Amino acid sequence: MNQLTDRIHYLPPDPETDRPILSAICGTYQTLIVDAGNSDKHAKLFLDELNRCQVKNHHAVVLTHWHWDHSFGTNEMNKLTIAHENTKMHLEKMMEYDWSDEALNNRVQKGLENPFCSEMIKKEFGTDRNITITLPNITFKDKLEIDLGGIRCVVKHVGGDHSDDSSLIFVEEEKALFLGDCLYPSIYTQQPQYRIDNVRHLLENIEMFDAKIYVLSHEPPLSKDDFMGYINLLNLICDLTEKHQRNHLNLVNELTSQLNRKLSQLEEEVV
Ligand SMILES: [Zn+2]
């Protein structure tokens, strides 16, 4: 467990089985947990760490979106669960799924499951595929404010290409913004995708929050400078995609000459 600020603890992401960051925001009276983890084991590890750090009064979990790695630990967390109404809708659909290798492979073939997620589920759960989908108790449409005592959290639905239910959590007093996976591209399309209008809409929403620390679920927390670099890159690529009418080569050439160097792996992926 690490400390993000005086009043926020987090368990770092673990790429081994695609475990996202799990966090605890500690107010005077209540502690709010952000995301439930990718399995009962992951949730248990987090709860044990909270115990070890003597973090108490955790009665609620808020989900950033429905994807397995953020929601499969909900049952083990065993707390009041808060999520966007679309998160509940997607989880309801998933309740009917069978998680055997055969069923997973079948869904991958039909394009209903992402191959990477399928591999990671097999790796996280092994042969003991004890997966219980638990639905949120409280849902919201646009936003929700939670007062933890001396700390206020705004939970806001932003959507985006990665998942239509993506919601962010802004912790006003700590100037921390939890973004979940909302800035990542789609994963249930043949290729990862961004749409210009979706990205711009998302960035407008994000820029409304005056944060100093930005938490994306699958990487170490970012400072404002690093995060703005990421945002500027997305904005620039949107502009160039529009300018070059999706001509890949022209886009890459102009981006390379504007940056005056070879593109990084991240830049190539975003393009
Ligand atoms: Zn996701």
UniProtKB/TrEMBL annotation:
SUPFAM superfamilies registered for this protein in UniProt: Metallo-hydrolase/oxidoreductase (SSF56281)
InterPro entries assigned to the protein according to its UniProt record, in alphabetical order: Metallo-B-lactamas, NDM-1-like, RibonucZ/Hydroxyglut_hydro
UniProt domain Metallo-beta-lactamase: residue ranges: 27-218
Spans traversing the lipid bilayer: none
Domain of life: Bacteria
Name recorded for this polypeptide: Metallo-beta-lactamase domain-containing protein
Species name: Virgibacillus pantothenticus
